[in-house]
Amino acid sequence: MGTRADFYINDDKSMEWVGSIYKDGSPINIPVEILIQTNPVMFEELTVEFLESRDSVIKKDGDAWPWPWADSRMTDYSYIFTMDRVLAYSMAAKHLFTPLKIVQGEDLNSASYLPLHVSFPIMLKQAVKSTEELLNQYGYQPTQAI
After folding, report:
1. Which tens digits make up the pLDDT trace of 34-86?
2. 28: left (phi over 0), alpha (psi -120 to 50) or beta
3. Phi/psi of residue 11, nearest 5 degrees
4. Cα diameter, the chain
5. Measured between alpha carbons, how far is 117 from 41 in angstroms, rounded to an integer?
6. How many other CB atoms sit within 10 Å of the CB of residue 53?
7. Euclidean distance between CA atoms 143 and 70, whole angstroms
8. Residue 4: is its pLDDT beyond 50?
């Protein structure tokens, strides 16, 4: 299976899932126009346009959460528009980072963004227990609904 990615908009009150792709989800495969966005409306429009051109699922099209796990902690990458920038979360790194810095050649440690923790919304309630058991083996934080 390819490198999966989820996309969100975080507006201080909640984190809203926009959609997901099944492959080519690493930062170097995401259009720079998405990664540099400072406007949430443009981020969502460009993300949906990008997802429509890929093997993807899109919330606005009525698509459902595509993964068998409860939230994005097990997805390879998650891109989050928050405040006035795009941040990303990597399952491998377990923290937030600036994806544009990865595209520019920096490593995950130098691209880290504080605060390092993110709480994803629970997308598949019936999978919470199995997801938590698996993630606990690897030292991940518990899921928290936002």
Report:
1. 999 999 999 999 999 999 999 999 999 999 999 999 999 899 999 999 989 99
2. alpha
3. -120, 35
4. 39
5. 24
6. 10
7. 8
8. yes
Q: How far apart are CA 107 and CA 89, in angstroms?
A: 13
pTM of the model: 0.88
The Cα 38–Cα 110 span in angstroms is 21
Structure tokens at 12: 């201080």
pLDDT band at 141 (very low <50, low <70, confident <90, very high): low
Q: Do the beta carbons of residue 5 and residue 78 sit within 8 Å?
A: yes
d(CA 9, CA 59): 12
DSSP-derived secondary structure letter, 126: G
Helix (H) or strand (E) holding 5: strand 5-10
| Per-domain residue ranges of the chain | 5-137
Question: What tens digit of pLDDT does each residue of 16-25 get?
Answer: 999 999 999 9
